[in-house]
Amino acid sequence: MHKINNQKKAYNFINAGDLCSFSGKLILIRDQSLERLKNEKKPPISFENAVVFFCGPTPTPKSKITGSIGPTTTERMQDYFEMLFKLGAISLIGKGGIKDKYINIFKDKGCLMSVTGGVGAFLSKKVISSKILAYEDLLAEAIREMEVDDLPCVCVVDKNGKKII
Questions:
Q1: Residues 10-30: what's their mean pLDDT?
Q2: Of 56, 118, 152, 165, whose CA is between 20 and 30 Å from 124?
Q3: Is the Cβ–Cβ distance between 50 and 90 less than 8 Å?
Q4: Which domain holds residue 110?
Q5: Are strands 2-4 and 143-157 parallel, antiparallel or unpaired?
Q6: Which bin fits 123, alpha (ψ -120 to 50), beta or left (φ > 0)?
Q7: pLDDT digits over 45-104, tens only?
């Protein structure tokens, strides 16, 4: 299992199909915030060396850091991949695979990781901290930063453009 983080070099030796464990800061983003970001002249946050997790957490229960953090279907986000890499993202995390025509976007830029759906409550136990960074009015779809420790994922598209699903 590969230990990965927010350093770009951590993704150089990961191949499609490899199991990974991510520790570090994630940028959480979803459909509405991606659409708003696309129309901004200047992004409200930096995506430099960001690992972007397509996720909108459920409401936070009392005495918890966050609610459930189940992944969003990656295929719905694929029109935004190129924009996120241009803004400086180094890896993307979602649920499931993508259409073949989007595979080349990952070549020499980063990896696509996948998290199993239905395990959002389990994943929330991996969260150390959480805060809203932008678009607070979008509630669950606001852009957030979450620091996690040992978040399990699998590489589904690597930096060479190889994919497993």
A1: 96
A2: 165
A3: yes
A4: 2-157
A5: unpaired
A6: alpha
A7: 999 999 999 999 999 999 999 999 999 999 999 999 999 999 999 999 999 989 999 999
Centre a 10 Å sphere on the Cβ of residue 13 and count the other Cβ atoms it contains.
Answer: 11
The count of domains in the chain is 1
From CA 104, how far away is CA 160, in angstroms rounded?
8
Per DSSP, the three-state class of 138 is helix
139 is written with which tokens?
Answer: 């509630």
Indicate whether 163 belongs to any domain: no
| SS3 label, residue 73 | strand
Residue 37, in any domain of the structure: yes
The pTM score is 0.95
Q: Which amino acid is at 24?
A: G
CB 71 within 8 A of CB 51: no
Closest CA to 30 of 162, 159, 147, 143: 143
To which residue do tokens 């239905």 refer? 118
